[in-house]
Amino acid sequence: MSDWNQRIIDEFRANGGQVETAGFGRRLVLVHHVGAKSGTERIAPVMVIRTDPDTWLIAASKGGAPDNPSWFHNLLAHPDVTIETPDDGVVPVRAERLEGEARDDAWARFKETSPGFGEYEQRTHRVIPVFALRRRAAE
Description:
The protein is globular and about 35 Å long. The chain has a single domain, classed as Pnp Oxidase, Chain A, CATH 2.30.110. The N and C termini lie far apart (32 Å). The protein contains 4 helices and 6 strands; from the N terminus they run αβββαββααβ. By secondary structure, the protein is an alpha+beta fold. A hairpin with a 6-residue loop joins β1 (28-34) and β2. It is 31% helix and 32% strand. The longest helix has 14 residues, at 100-113.
């Protein structure tokens, strides 16, 4: 998976956020997150839904795997991160895990945007977490 992720990261950066692989287009961000245990910075390409100029939604779907992606745990431990975006460059954000109705509404948006998310939901017994990444002031 890390080789695939690196290819996506390289394509994102080489083409100003446009990723033709898997038809992502301009619907990805690169999440720079810090390992909850290791403290090491990592980068994860994640599909995004932008809800307003200062908010991006991401879902910890992991293709419907039975466990959450590592970045999920890292955002809970270290919610102040940066993202690389196709339109705004590098943006400092705070990750907020959505709960209840807010999560359900956001998850419905993912399934409307891409039918694959509905398939991921059917493959797993877990409730797929959704985060809102909200712009914060630069440090």
